[in-house]
Structure formats: C-alpha cells, structure tokens
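Notes from the pairing session

We agreed to fold both candidates in a single pass and log them together. This is the raw record for the first candidate, unedited. Please don't reformat it; downstream parsing expects exactly this layout.

Candidate A
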Amino acid sequence: MKIGYTCGVYDLFHVGHLNILKAAKSMCDHLIVGITVDELVSYKGKKTVIPYEDRAKIVEAIRYVDTVVPQTSVDKVEACRRLKYDVLFVGDDWYGHDSWKSYEAALGEMGVKVVYFPYTSHVSTSSLKDILKEHKDV
C-alpha cells in the first residue's frame, strides 16, 4: 500500500485545494492530510478565517482524503518518521526553494518521493481574503 501525505492550512477551502487532494489521491492508496493548527499559522504572523477544528472537518469530508491529522510542525522529515508516508505532495510554488531542496534530499534518503503539483494560479486563500475585504460592506 502506498501512503501519500500533503499538508496545508486549508483556510477558505477552494478549488486549488481540491485539485491537490484529487491529484494526490490518484497517486496513492491512502492519503493523509495534515491541517496546520491555528498556533502554527499564528507563529508565521498570519491568522486563519476558519478555526482548525472546522478546517479539519471540511477536509475530512472530501472523498479523496483518508486521514486528517494536525500539522503542529513544518518539519516534513519529522512528519514522515511519525506517519510513515511514501510520497509527499506539494504545490509547485515551493519547487526550488532551499528548504524544499533540503526536504527532497532528506526524504530521498528515507525512500520518500516528493511530487510537485501545478499551483492553481487563478485562486488562492490570499486572493479570496482580498476579495472579502473589498466586499465587506456588501
């Protein structure tokens, strides 16, 4: 059985999130999704619109997702040791970043492949938040 893993905040769930989950599930037998906890999001200086518990429930309801776990650390190697996944799925907006090159090397030594999926360019949580700000008086 091939176990896949992907993670993210999944705030204001949109079609880009769905695209990654659908593509990831097509490449593994069991898909684990790490949902970033509120404390980790705030550590990055950001804030979610939807609290962790609700974001986790939304992602759990997606048919492509087999297991949802809290993401309490950004360390993908530690997550692999804990969850024992075979392939890590991530958006290609991270491709080539130094931290991801490091993850690729460390995970490669563990026999884990990193797969980059095309970023859905026409939508993002940030763009949705901007739209909401523009329309807050409507």
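Candidate B (folded immediately after A)
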Amino acid sequence: MPAILSKIFNKNTLVLFGWLAIAYTFYTFWHYANDKATNMVTQTKADLSHRQNQDKMTVEDYSLKEVNDANKVKWQLHAKSGVVDPVTKDVSLETVHVDYYDEAGALKMRMTAPTGIANENTKMTKLLSSKTQKVECEGEGGKAKLLAYQVELKNKNQFLATGGVNIVWPGVAKVNGSQAEGSLKNTDLKNFKIVGNTHAWIGGSQ
C-alpha cells in the first residue's frame, strides 16, 4: 500500500497539482476581476446617461440673438421653451419665432414654427413644421410670405427652405417648389431662387 501511495504522490504528481492549483487561483482572480470591471463599466455608463439627462436644462421663454459689428441686433429668436444640452450647446425649441431687422433696426421679417433646433455657439438654426403647421415666414406688412416644411437659417442671413415650398410676394412673385434658398438681409426674400419641381409666376399682379 505505501508503495502505491508513493507512486501516486510522487514528485511530478505533486508539481502538477501545484501548477493546477496556481492556474485555478489565477482563473478565479481573473474571473472575479472581469466581473467587477464589467459591473463598473455598466454602472459608469448608467451614471453618465443619468447625469447627461439631468444636466439638460429647460429654459422657459428662451431667447437667442446675433448682433453685427456695431452691436445692433441682426436677428433675435424667441421660444416658449428651450432644452439646452450643456455639452453640444444644441437647444430643442418649442413654439419658436425669429425676427429679422434691417440696418436701421426696423423689423423686416418674422419666421414662426412649432418646433426647432438651434446651437448657441454657431447660431445655426433649423425651424421645423408639425403635422398641422408649416414653417411660416412673413415680411413687414405682409409684403412677402414663405411656407415650407423646414427652413434652415445659415450665416449672413442666408436661408434654405425645403419641402413643399410656397412663396407669395404680392405684385412680384408666386412660386411653388421643393427647395428655395436666398437672403433675408435688408429686403424681403432678397435674391431667392427655387430649384426642383417648380412652378413660378413672377412680375405684376396675377
């Protein structure tokens, strides 16, 4: 019997068991550490997501404006409310209108929309329609009117209107198309052009 035990528990066998024990210990530690790290990553992502949602700030009577070199207001945006993302500075707008002014400070154009998106850093603004209301742009005294599903306001008072564009400028133009672009600087719908699936009548009264 002792001889049999001696063969079983010889030096090589004991070394093998030793390495197996060490390997098992390392595996157990790795498995524990991996689970711990996975749980920490999951928790961190959840915390960040929760914090981002918390950090977004809702501002009632939100406003944004751009001024020229003489510190005169070029345009001013007002919204019933704005939800500001602190990281991107994007603002989700509800019930919004944008007023454009000429160099003398007189109101020349007002754009209204049910919703919109603006960026506080770049001042880029996009006005969006709803199922029941289009984006509407009306000049002083009803001199010009633009309807579209979406109007993107760019730098230097440039605009891009897309989707079911309809421009009525009494005594000057009546245009239906899929896309319009031009300038809102100083005059109503200055230098606009329509592209794509367009029907236009320009000049005089219809």
